[in-house]
Amino acid sequence: MAFRKMWLKINGANRIFICDPAKDSLADVLRRLGLTSVKVGCGTGVCGSCSVILDGQLIRSCTRKIAKLPEYSEVITLEGIGTPNNLHPLQVAFMKLGAVQCGFCTPGFIVSSYALLLENADPTRKEVRAWFQKHKNVCRCTGYKQIVDAVMEAAKVVRGEAAMDAIGPSFSTEDGYYGKPVVRPTALAKVCGLADYGDDQELKMPADTLHVAVVQPRTAHHARILEIDISEAEKMPGVKKVILAADLKAAGGTNIMAEGQMHERTTVMAPSREVLNEKKIYRYGDVVALVAADTKDRARAAAAQVKVKIEQLPEYLNFLEAVMPDAERIHEDTPNIFCMQPLLKGAGLEEPSKVAGIIDSSPYSVEGSFYSTRQPHLTIEGDSVQAYFDEDGFLTFQCKSQGIYSSIGRIGNSIGIPKDRLRVVMNPTGASFGWSTNAGDLCLAGAAAVVMKSPVSLSMSYEEHQHFSGKRCPCHSNGRAACDENGRITAVEFDFGMDHGAYSWGGDDIVTKQPRFAFFPYYVPHAAGLSRIANTNHNFGTAYRSYGSPQAYTLSEALMDMLAEKAGIDPFEFRWRNIAREGQTNINSYPFRQYPMEEMMNIMRPHYERAVREAKKADTREKRRGVGLSWGGFNVTEGGTDKATVAIELNPDGTFTKYDTYQELGQGGDIGSLMLTLEALKPLGVTPEQIRLVQNDTRLCPDSGMSGASRTHFMSGNATILAAEKLISAMRKPDGTYRTYDEMKAEGLETKYFGTYSNTSVPGLCRLDPNTGIGDPTPAFTYCLNLAEVEVDTATGKTTVLRFTCVSDVGKVGNIDSVNGQAYGGISHAIGFALGENYDDVKKHTNIAASGVPYTETIPDELEVIYYERPDESGPFGSSGASEGFQSSGHMAVLNGIYNACGVRVYEMPASPEKVKAGIDILAAGGKITPPKKYFLGSDLYEELENIKANPVQAGPEDYFVPLGSGTAERFF
Ligand code: FES
Ligand code: FES
């Protein structure tokens, strides 16, 4: 190994450094020099997070070898563009226009924008988008619109046409802050490249930290482990130990992650997921060993030398394969289908097969079989965890986690440290969208720390992370729907087969979602349905925004369109006739908690009519134009047992500290908490500068639950109100003025107050009956009505979404930039889902680009979200939840738009150009597209429903079923 001394002119100053010319990239060198605004996401040149300017050219520094650079090359990083005390207009605009969410992509985008403005200070929006497309800048959070807004605003200042302080909306705070575009507290560090994410923490850890690499054999999806040969790896330089399951057990761990399977119909008898696989590999991404070494490179080099001998076992890579009669069990204690949730309504409750009779005898009926894909989350940041024993002996994790308390529950006894000696702290986090609910990465890092009795850092490559982290469950489904001569739905039936992959945790939760969201929010008088979940040997299913509902809408929103066509009714009108009106029940036989559907359709109507007119006008043989609709929505909170605790403290200087676990993943955990606290403390006239947030550290913050299920703003907000009321009441003097800190102390009054809010205070909540699906588990919903305007190129089959409009009800909007960000981001994931995102082919879908992440030009710039701000009665200050509704069904607006444009119905996602083109060619030749045959999902639907009816299970008490993310650790076994 030969090192080299080099000079570069970085941000205007000549800098000397030592590098390894054989290995180092420019990004490696810059980061070692402390310029950690240069983020490495993909590491393979496809995400743009490492963008810098090299000799006047914008480049991606992760793939630029240092050895190829001439000495004294000039480099500009974000640190050279602006600092907190001397911000560039781009940085101000990104902060003020909501262009920053998780912030991991932000330095790359600002550097890229800076380079653009050097070349062209007066770009059009189209040129800005084309620039980002060309330079591969990817943002997975924002949907790009707010980023382009920011560049356009900043450009005005750069050109001298506007003053810096004119950037962003101006607003009055006379009536308070709630609903106003207050800038998120973490934005400044993010736009300056000063937010230290996981890999930045690793780089800055004390010198005797050990580095850990995973041994992920990646040879089979299902295999018996015959031998793990570590002899060569152990001899490699710098290696301290190769850690196997036996080492973890010897250190006191069970090596089994805790699990909560609570549904009465689950057949899972014991937790199944090992920290380090010992005897079997259940999926491609399983980890069988860890290497601890003195450097990251050495750990990784040694990991590559571990040899794993296997005996191949039968592999079942989707639901259909795993439920074939001759399929072997994947886990010994359970059949592959491990849980089912039936749904019966109306005549279906009397006799399930009566529903089939109603459908058969209705004037119009349609049927179809559908498939939705294994959607990967594709965060730009991968996975990086630090684990160390703190001064008080707590095994401390610094990581990405959507539920820091539930992560402790999930770790359980697996690594041999009692749960009350574990501490989880969130690092600044480059988004998650659901994957960090699992804690498998924490278990790995914790295992290494326990076995080595040393601080460790584990940073996976993007490909390792891609194979290790769970994905959205793919789903095969069969369904039918029927209506009368007036286009009113008479009955529906559905059968969902969800692929939960190798491990079961969460499967008995997701299986309750399709029987709630299929045909939401329509009035369906009679229904018979089933949702089944099975283990396969593919990656495990996990939380992902709109958890479990996109699978439902894939069936129901296709059938709605098909039925409208069969009945000869316009799809908008058909939906109008079938939305539930006041008093009509949802599919679970309960009244909807809110009925905003008519108002929302009235808002959408002119947009739809314009879109149809424009599509007709612009339609050509070469470029077919179409319009697609979909209704969607999602639940708010995790149900009747959901609970959140926060605390607010009066500080000696008269300011306030708020403590909570509103996990910030880019969605706005910081600003959400701030807005709620400002509003709750409004009687005291508090300003944002007077509130300090202490968040996401289990030793300092009470358990506010998980950030998921669109619950946090709702639950944490209600808890904030309770805490604030207590504090304000203690501070209030008899004359109506308020005590100071000193006065409180002098009178012996507490200065810190906790608020705990529980859904048990919401009347009438009840979970789904495991025998019928009747129930009303959550206090509120979000509602989204989507309109996609698409163009299909008949020569290539490529679909372009030209415009996307969403009318949404999320209650009162607490912070417009954050909610817009969730909306645009959710819609962008939905468009990606429709057109190509996938993680089915483990050899191909190894990075964000290969897995179909949408670059700028895939997402329309004309992205409009219209809020119908109906104050929610049970939510804080009229807010409901946000986020998940926006990704629930947008994909179906796109797919329905494709059908409307060119007559090709995509039954099996994604709508790849090849698939659409094949359909176009069939139709052009006068043929008919053959839909998929009805899938075999393990048994006949009605036979299974009869079987369930004949063998009911005893429904447990209300808190028997505890959903995926509930915070308290004791709920895991
Ligand atoms: Fe360099 Fe992704 S392009 S980290
Ligand atoms: Fe762009 Fe999160 S803000 S990836």
UniProtKB/TrEMBL annotation:
UniProt domain 2Fe-2S ferredoxin-type: residue ranges: 4-81
Matching PROSITE patterns: 2FE2S_FER_1 (PS00197), 2FE2S_FER_2 (PS51085)
Pfam families listed in its UniProt record: Ald_Xan_dh_C (PF01315), Fer2 (PF00111), Fer2_2 (PF01799), MoCoBD_1 (PF02738), MoCoBD_2 (PF20256)
Keyword annotations from UniProtKB, A to Z: Iron, Metal-binding, Molybdenum, Oxidoreductase
The keyword Nucleotide-binding belongs to this UniProt entry's keyword annotation: no
Record InterPro entries: 2Fe-2S-bd, 2Fe-2S-bd_dom_sf, 2Fe-2S_ferredoxin-like_sf, 2Fe-2S_ferredoxin-type, 2Fe2S_fd_BS, Ald_Oxase/Xan_DH_a/b, Ald_Oxase/Xan_DH_a/b_sf, Ald_Oxase/xanthine_DH-like
Entry's Gene Ontology molecular function annotations: 2 iron, 2 sulfur cluster binding; iron ion binding; oxidoreductase activity
Protein family per UniProt: Belongs to the xanthine dehydrogenase family.
NCBIfam families in the record: pterin_aldehy
Protein name: Aldehyde oxidoreductase
